[in-house]
Design brief:
Blueprint: E1 11-18, E2 24-31, E3 37-43, E4 50-52, E5 58-59, H1 63-73, H2 81-98, E6 102-104, H3 105-119, H4 121-131, H5 137-147
Parallel strand pairs: 4-6
Antiparallel strand pairs: 1-2, 2-3, 4-5
Helix pairs in contact: 1-2, 2-3, 3-4, 4-5
Length: 170
């Protein structure tokens, strides 16, 4: 660490402390040459990757844009803000763990779809229809079939009624 007063590279640490959250380290230092004291702060500097759009343009990652995309897909759906924030955090953690300086926007779109699929199937279909730019109803139907977990009930059946067996066991 260079001394800010005389630019000498020889400094000594006289005291080290962490803040209450443990995410900042404060160090008191003394210059060996001029004997002046100064303080440095160490913080984690996580850099989100740049986003490479489909047209090749590059842009900075935008937390608000990501959160806004999920909130738009989940509009009027029974999903809490906390669940949305947790999904955004998982996507950001995944992006950071990749350690790449640039990420294609398509890869982020797939991450968003994966999170939406876990949160709400209707929101997943909404997002997929725009993201994948469906050109016909068959593509839409395919995604709906993909998320259906149980067969649809016949309107004449009662909830919980097994269509294979009626009340008389026949």
């Amino acid at each position: 660490m260079k001394c800010p007063f005389c630019a000498d590279p020889n400094t000594q640490v006289t005291d080290t402390r962490e803040n209450e959250d443990g995410d900042v380290v404060r160090r008191r230092r003394r210059c060996v040459k001029c004997d002046k004291r100064f303080t440095t702060y160490e913080r984690i500097d996580l850099k989100m990757p740049h986003i490479v759009k489909r047209n090749g343009n590059r842009t900075e990652f935008d937390h608000n844009k990501l959160a806004g995309s999920l909130k738009l897909a989940l509009r009027k759906r029974p999903v809490t803000i906390e669940a949305i924030d947790a999904a955004v955090d998982r996507i950001e953690a995944r992006l950071l763990s990749l350690g790449e300086p640039e990420i294609p926007s398509a890869q982020i779109g797939e991450m968003v779809m994966k999170e939406l699929k876990k949160l709400d199937k209707v929101a997943y279909i909404r997002f997929a229809s725009v993201y994948r730019n469906f050109t016909d109803v068959d593509e839409f139907s395919e995604v709906i079939r993909e998320v259906q977990t149980r067969p649809r009930r016949n309107k004449a059946e009662k909830p919980g009624q097994d269509p294979e067996h009626d009340l008389f066991g026949s």
